Amino acid sequence: MNNRFPSIPNASIIELPTALEGYRRDESHIIGSMPLAVVKPHRPDALRKLVSIANGEGYDLVPRGTGTGKAGGATPTEKSIIVDMSEYPGQIQISHAELALWAPASALLRDVKESATLRGLYYPPDPNSWDQCSFGGTLATNAGGVSACKYGMTRHWVLSVDALMEDGEIHRFGIETVKNNAGPNIAQLLVGSEGIFGIITGASVRLIPATAERLTLLLPVSHWGDLLELPEQLITQGLLPRAFEFWDPDVLQYLRQHGSGEAKRLPGEALAILEFDDLDCTGNDFICEVLNVLGSLSEYVQVATDVRQREVVWNVRRQTSVVLKEQFPHKISEDIAVPRHRVKAFFDGVKQNNIPIVTYGHLGDGNLHVNILAPNSPSDLEHHLNALFRLTLDLGGTLTGEHGIGLAKREAFLAFTDPWQIQAIRKIKQALDPNGIFNRGKVV
Question: 422 burial class (0-12, 13-18, 19+ CB within 10 angstroms)?
Answer without folding.
Answer: middle
